[in-house]
Amino acid sequence: MTLENWRPAVIQLLERIADNSKIFLNAYPYDDGVWRQSTNEFVAARLSILLHAMPEYRYLKEDVIETSAEFIAAGALGIINKWANDNFTASPRTVLDQITTANRLFNGILDRWKLS
Known about the structure:
Elements: H1 6-19, H2 21-27, H3 34-53, H4 62-85, H5 92-115
Helix pairs in contact: 1-5, 3-4, 4-5
């Protein structure tokens, strides 16, 4: 995943989840948090790579980047879980827009923190 292709990659992931919604809905509540934990770690690792690639965030310390990636991943997965609980009624693009909006809000917080 790169800064250039993350949106199509996320849309593809969301479409796969929607296409396999029965499997998703049957699997994720019964795994004692294994799915959530492993998915959060996977997403956070990719987000960390993206944050490192963003020149505007090179001033951040490593632990701040890692914590930020974990926070953003948890938020994105929370939005995906809400989508699942709503029986996937929204389109994958709508879910991506929700994730993007939440990310923009978080980026604004990081920018303000940088200035203080």
